[in-house]
Amino acid sequence: MTLLEFALHNVRQRPARNLLTVMAVALGVAAAVALTGIAWGFEASWQKANDARGTDLIVTRLASTNAMPSPFRAEPLQGELRGYPKVRDVVGLLSEMLGVEAGAPPLFVFGWTHGSYLWRHLKLADGRWPAHTDEPAVVIGVVAAGLLAKKVGDTLEIEGRRMPVVGVFESTAAIENGAVLMTLTQAQQTTDKPGKVNVLNVMLDADATDADVNAIKARIRERAPGFVAITSGELVGQNTVVRIAKAMSNATTLIAALVGILIVFNTMLMSVNERTREIGILLALGWHRRTVIQLVCGEAALLTLAGGIAGVLVGVGLTLQLEHLDLLRGKIDANFPLSFLLTMPLLAMLVGTIGGLYPALKASRLTPAHALRQE
Predict the structure, then answer these.
(1) Is 131 exposed, middle or buried (0-12, 13-18, 19+ CB in 10 A)?
(2) Rounded to two decimals, what is the model's pTM?
(3) Are residues 262 and 183 in the same domain?
(4) Is residue 258 domain-resident?
(5) Section 349-353 average pLDDT
(6) Which residue among 230, 258, 285 closes a domain?
(7) Rounded CA gap, 112 and 91, in Å?
């Protein structure tokens, strides 16, 4: 019988206790996986939306780290940007999370410049687009249409203002499918922010190089104090919601690791105490003390590996279910990199090995004579 087979045999000898240990580890891993998936998913959703729109650079306030960047007056900065080399178009965008209809969860409401490139990646599923910039009408994503139970011809109340739904659209970005879209002029009127935008979306010429991008960034810093030109990934990365979500996932992972170490420590210590005579016999038969350490740590690693695998499966399933909650539907697109999913069981094994180290050392220090006297 190999050492691994011996460890598996010992694990099966105490099914109830070991199953509880596996479940406790699995719950901790599942919580870490779910929170991390949501945090990365929220970041990826915004990144995907900006990429789908064809935006190369985003100009916003230097200190805008809120969920929605702080609004500012688009002019004269927008006009100046249009004169920069390699800049094809500059489009204002106003984004807010607003209450839409009584009893419905808050949704993202986007205001885009009518006829700009921002609309091109959307696919109209039903109805039409707003006819002109001053038309008080909205189009809604397919997910938002389901959440609100609205179709073309219905009306939608936003901030106390009723507007007709003239179209339903589809997007490759989940966060847009769960949003309400109107012209920038109408969004400014609805939110009482005339002439203001959250960001200026900059589209560059197809032949623009990294040097051109860096030159534009430097020029913005010099010519527009208080503003910065960044990529969509940089903007999302400094978003307060994303940073809080990532901090929570990191904290949960750390807490789960510490709790896992204590649980495995307790389980393996009880196991060693109950198997004192067995360990004494093994030592009397010529087992090396390092082999005893390997056996006990191996049992701990097997328990936490099983818990880690189960936790990853539960965490992924839980996150996929959370995506369909009304409060989160259309706002996140869970993201689980394969490297992360493979790392979590390995991290759980490391936690198990650390938790089982002291019981293993205790077992290895037993003398056969003392161990065989134990009842």
Answers:
(1) exposed
(2) 0.71
(3) no
(4) yes
(5) 88
(6) 230
(7) 8
